[in-house]
Amino acid sequence: MKRNYYYFLILILLITSCIGKSEVPVNTSTSSEKTIQQQLTSGTIFITGFYAFNIQVACYWIDGKPQVLDTPSSATYSYANSVAISSSDVYIAGFYSNRNSRSIACYWKNGERIDLSITGEFSASSTAMAISGSNVYITGGYSGGGIHRACYWKNDVFHDLAIPENASRAYARAIIISDNDVYITGEYRNSNFTQIACYWKNGVFNELNNPVGADSSACASAIAISNSDIHIAGHISIGDDCIAYYWNNGNPQELYIPNNAESSIANSIAVLDSDVYIIGYYAIDYYNNVACYWKNGELHELDIPSDARTSIATAVEISGSDIYITGFYTDNNLTEFAVYWKNGTLYNLDPLAGSSMVRITDISISK
Fold this sequence. Notes:
Layout: H1 8-15, H2 36-39, E1 45-53, E2 55-62, E3 65-68, E4 78-86, E5 89-97, E6 103-109, E7 112-115, E8 123-132, E9 135-144, E10 147-154, E11 157-160, E12 169-178, E13 181-189, E14 195-201, E15 204-207, E16 217-226, E17 229-238, E18 241-248, E19 251-254, E20 263-272, E21 275-285, E22 288-295, E23 298-301, E24 308-319, E25 322-331, E26 336-342, E27 345-348, E28 357-365
Antiparallel strand pairs: 1-2, 1-28, 2-3, 4-5, 5-6, 6-7, 8-9, 9-10, 10-11, 12-13, 13-14, 14-15, 16-17, 17-18, 18-19, 20-21, 21-22, 22-23, 24-25, 25-26, 26-27
């Protein structure tokens, strides 16, 4: 699977400072007259994300048409982070705030919200999901009282993920199931507050090699399995600079960026035949990001309008021989546009009226 999601943890910190509740515009698209299941046909493009109407609002697009996801009226923010389609059912993982400003992990099945339980009075979020047969797996984390732990839910039942004894924090970011084996990627912080990239296979912890050294931190953002090969994408950071990295069966490889680029991030990964596609962006400076992908390590910039100021690619999905990439860009007027690329061709997603910000998190194509 692809996933997930560049500076999402930074966004969480930013949004939890939002207070108050504003009126969310009602979408009048004709697609709202049908249920999600009624709109699904072979090749339907389903994309998740969130918009801002003074608060952040979880939403999704079906073939480019947006809809807001159900949350309690008291929620001060909500996010849709991941999507999976199984037969005629659509599952979306995310979270929202309750009236006590505590985050509640949840998922939506065909638009109906289901809250996920944890042990204790913690804030929780769900970050990614995968479906295998009748089993629904969702990764996430919970925090409170100075701790942050990685976890997952299987069919709504909560499970902690094992971490080293010296770990102070842990995060789970992506999940994939292959031949009944469950792989989850993420990272933990050791006693020196260094961030270590890792993954879990069937709950067993595995640390990823960091070639840069002890003065750097690493993150494993996405995973794909091809045959018996484990492909993981992420980044390694030193100070404020991040460099996109790829691990092939644990062997790290720095991803190329232009000489004038300051940093790069890998957000998502997928494999088609023997070709490995890694999605993300590189930064020329703080205000100038360039959406891109790496195919077998070779950099390719994604097409954006000439007036685009910055762009980011967030997720990838392969359907047949077609490659879908999601993202967003900002023009010189600081207007943000949700988009996807199909085989390199850019398509805009319809906006929700009155929104001031948009982020795209994931994509799935119905069979």
